Amino acid sequence: MLIAATAFLLDWLLGEPRRRHPLVGFGRLALCCERRLYGGAGVAPGARRARGASATLLLLAPFTAAAATLAEVPYLGTVLSVAVLYLALGHRSLHDHARPVAAALSAGDEAEARRLVSLIVSRDPASLDITRAATESVLENGNDAVFGALFWFVVAGAPGVVVYRLANTLDAMWGYRSERYVDFGFAAARLDDLLNYVPARLTALTYAILGHRRSAWRCWRAQAHDWDSPNAGPVMAAGAGALGVELGGPARYAGEWHARPMLGIGRAPIAADVERALRLVRAGVWLWLASLCLGGALGA
């Protein structure tokens, strides 16, 4: 609990490293690995999947093994655990990116709000609903950048955080159903789905407990399975229900419209709902840390 609290405090005070973030370097290494292993146009789909699986293993195994080894070293292991969890968290970053969007909307500067929200979502900025997109991003990244990392730290320490965050990064790079990545990114996407299965449902439970409980439960049960992602569905459906707003709906990616289902219940989100979503994530952090403290006391 003390390591987790220290990492969250560092994240809140310092935010993400401005320069030489390890995940940026890892992304460059992944691009290099992709260029070497992707293969030419004549590679069969099955072979392409095998190449993608090999790339995923080659990128994850050394860093995970190094974290597991160093975590066992007295004193150094504690420092490493704090550093790894701090670098994996994006709690402060979530606020730094979402709050300016809400501020621009409140000031009536739609053009600036659209520019800012385009930095945190992959949808075409010209056609997206700004407030809806920002609220969805906060709820979904509450799992990916906050609770998922904390869950795997509790389960497996520094190595768990490393494999979770690096797999999440590979999924963000390769986990698309495009012609290029549908096979090569298959292993990374499935691994990310597997690692997020339990954290996503605990995140949805967190939102339900801290928000409008009945709406959250109802939306989670009735709507989550309609979403194309098995983990984002519960998180966003429960989050929308907890806030009492309606999210989802058609969205355009890379020039193509995708018929996404509606999630949640109630009115369309407004600028103030972005801050309400951030407040929900913050309250969830306190709930998780308090649960760790209670679990540690009971274990002692």
Describe, in plain words, how this protein is organized in 3D.
The chain has about 300 residues and is mainly alpha-helical. The chain is globular, with a radius of gyration of 19 Å. The chain has one domain (about 1-300). About 75% of the residues lie in helices and about 5% in strands.
Give the uncertain stretches in residue-range form: none
Task: Give the overall pLDDT as a whole number.
Answer: 94
Distance between the termini: 13 Å
Strand order of the largest sheet: 1-4
Estimated radius of gyration: 19 Å
From the helix content, strand content and strand pairing, which structural class follows? mainly alpha
Q: Helical amount among residues, as a percent range?
A: over 70%
Q: Major β-sheet, in short?
A: 2 strands, antiparallel
Number of helices: 12
The dominant shape is globular
Number of domains: 1
Number of strands: 4
Report the sheet-strand fraction. Answer: under 5%
H/E element sequence:
HHHHHHHHHHHEEEEH
Structure described in brief:
With 300 residues, the chain is mainly alpha-helical. The protein contains 12 helices and 4 strands; from the N terminus they run H-H-H-H-H-H-H-H-H-H-H-E-E-E-E-H.
Helices and strands in order, then pairings?
Layout lengths: L1 H13 L7 H16 L7 H26 L5 H13 L2 H16 L3 H8 L12 H45 L6 H4 L1 H25 L2 H11 L8 H12 L2 E3 L2 E3 L2 E3 L3 E3 L6 H29 L1
Antiparallel strand pairs: 1-4, 2-3
Helix pairs in contact: 1-4, 2-3, 2-7, 3-7, 4-7, 5-6, 5-7, 5-12, 7-9, 7-11, 7-12, 9-10, 9-11, 9-12, 10-11
